[in-house]
Amino acid sequence: MAITGSGSLAISFYVLVISAAFLHKVDSQNLATDNVTVIEGETATISCRVRDNDDSVIQLLNPNRQTIYFRDVRPLKDSRFQLVNFSDNELRVSLSNVSLSDEGRYVCQLYTDPPQEAYADITVLVPPGSPIIESREDKVSEGNETELTCISMGSKPAASIRWMKGEDELTGETTVEENYDRMFTITSRVRFSVTKEDDGVPVDCIVDHPAVKDLLAQRHLEVLYKPEVKIVVTYPDGLTREGDNLDLTCIAEGKPQPNQINWLRVDEDVPPHAVVTGSDLYIENLNKSYNGTYRCVASNAVGEAYDDYTLYVYDAPTTLPTPTTNPVNTQDSRAGEGAPQKIDHAVIGGVVAVVMFAILCALIVLGRYFARHKGTYFTHEAKGADDAADADTAIINAEGGHNNTDEKKEYYI
Asked: Which of 92, 193, 305, 387 has the fewest CB atoms inside 10 Å of its own CB, making it the most exposed?
């Protein structure tokens, strides 16, 4: 029976599978070793262990099937391999200053019938170099978008990159490029809009890799923003009254520092004798014609901003204020003066009540007085008039009439 080429290949593959299974079974029973992961430049240790040895020879082979150690003898001329331990049950060998070329499958072999083999895979980790952050621009204006790029080169396996802005994590776009020497270059880009609060905030590019910890690059944001403006009243401390002086200071901060500060009066001209010195506005001898809104405008390369101060000149005080132990609210006083004062209705009501009471008392007294005198007149005139024949007789018969007659008589005597 002829066997074709494909059939022969299948039989060979089958034999290899059976042999591998047999060797794996023997390995698991008697010969054992461990895989090794080591960082480039450090030392790897390979241990070939035998559970039950019948004086069979142990040897260690490199990935090219070259003998590194045969029992306690090193045929390979590579001084980086050193014998750590040799006995009937173990062959332990160290490899110093590991490089990427040392990576591969090492073979522990025991000369029995049939021979036994166990495999130790050495994996070499290559830490990435220090990451580098590149920026599209050194300075960015508030409200605009900026882009940062972080590059991590020469790592194995490929590293990963995370972004942090202050305490906030950012999401970047990452690309991985494999080099000819089985090394990887990682590039990550992140984009975000900035505000003035981001000025000076650190942005970190953090590289994660099994061979290294806490590897990062950092850049502080430099954000340009328009000025922040605030008007401060330097003088006076309280109300602005006629005849007083007014001194205002404009405080403006921005990045870059504002290069121009202007004073103006909204919808009107600034008083002709007002003095502007840098960020200060000075007006002396105030009067009510100066009332209005005064504005400080500051600008830089990013933009401009302003703050307003509303001037209201109050009447000059005519009397000294009455001392009081109660604190006075400046805003309330300012709102109350200069316009007609509020009338105290309770006081007016009390005064009106007193006046009405006095008038009522006076009416009662006058009424009683007139009533008394009017009654006496009618009594003297009517007394004795009922029996009189005429008016002259009635007057003569009245008591008052006798008295008056007597008086007149006495007067003429």
From this structure: 387
